[in-house]
Amino acid sequence: MGEETQQQLQPQSLTGTQPQQQPQPPPQEASSDISAVTNVVGVETIIPVESELTNVPPHTNSPATKIPLRPRKIRKVSPDPTTTESQSETLKSTNSTATGKSCGRNNKTVQPLRALAAPRIVARSLSCEGEVEIAIRYLRNADPLLSPLIDIHQPPTFDNFHSPFLALTRSILYQQLAFKAGTSIYTRFIALCGGEAGVVPDTVLALNAQQLRQIGVSGRKASYLHDLARKYQNGILSDSAIVNMDDKSLFTMLTMVNGIGSWSVHMFMIFSLHRPDVLPINDLGVRKGVQILYNLDDLPRPSQMDQLCSSGIA
């Protein structure tokens, strides 16, 4: 094969400079090409890398670094294959509804939603009328071993609802303490705040570690209280948001607070928010109860609790 033929078959380098045999096209032509490609309303232009190589002629007459852009094939972006048809229809409906709405006195049009998160339903509180009866009926039907256990106990009763901030503060103060000692410290803390109504983020942040230490609160717990109060003050948490969060989001947000772990969140969901279907997998008493009720040889580990209590074995 001759040298001239080999040069013709050799691929062009995109970074090298080719001999200029004809005048270089003026920049205006390249700009017009760009406009022709990009000024397509509502359609995203995608130029694959392969097309840059295949559409370059074997012998370009201009430097490779200034190759004039040519109109490429235009294709619409396909929807996410994981999006179901019903989700797509819901998204279209939501976007069209949001576009037609206006808010505020300035009558500004709401922008269409870019994404639609899967809705999460917050379960009704067990303190609502009839919810306890529904829960008990479900447990009887779900597990025959629970039915005689339910018969020998009275239906649960619930304390009056306290604000989530007060309940979380109380939970921190009672951590790793006997009930009597925890009650004593909590009573002094309430007095220091001027009553339960005074337990608000600003008041807690105003109490320094020395003041809290004088009523029996350790330095570490004082830092936990301050971290909780700061997250309220910064808007990361709020009472209204906590009440309306689904269980998964609530667990995620509350465990961001220093000193609040999974056990504390589960206790808060059960005794403060009265949420149903909460399994405190780290609670020793609940784990022992599962072991006794289902005649297990060993105390179930926290990692086993979810599987046991949803499989029908326990």
Automatic annotation (TrEMBL):
GO molecular function: alkylated DNA binding; DNA-3-methyladenine glycosylase activity; DNA-7-methylguanine glycosylase activity
Originating organism: Trifolium subterraneum
Sorted UniProt keywords: DNA damage, DNA repair
Gene Ontology biological-process entries: base-excision repair, AP site formation; DNA alkylation repair
Family: Belongs to the alkylbase DNA glycosidase AlkA family.
Keyword DNA repair: yes
Gene Ontology, cellular component aspect: nucleus; protein-DNA complex
Alphabetized Pfam families for the sequence: HhH-GPD
Protein name: HhH-GPD domain-containing protein
HhH-GPD domain boundaries: 173-314
Biased composition (Low complexity): 1-21
Region of interest (Disordered), ranges: 1-36, 52-107
Cited InterPro entries: Alkylbase_DNA_Glycosylase/TA, DNA_glycosylase, HhH-GPD_domain
Amino acid composition bias (Polar residues), ranges on this chain: 52-64, 80-107
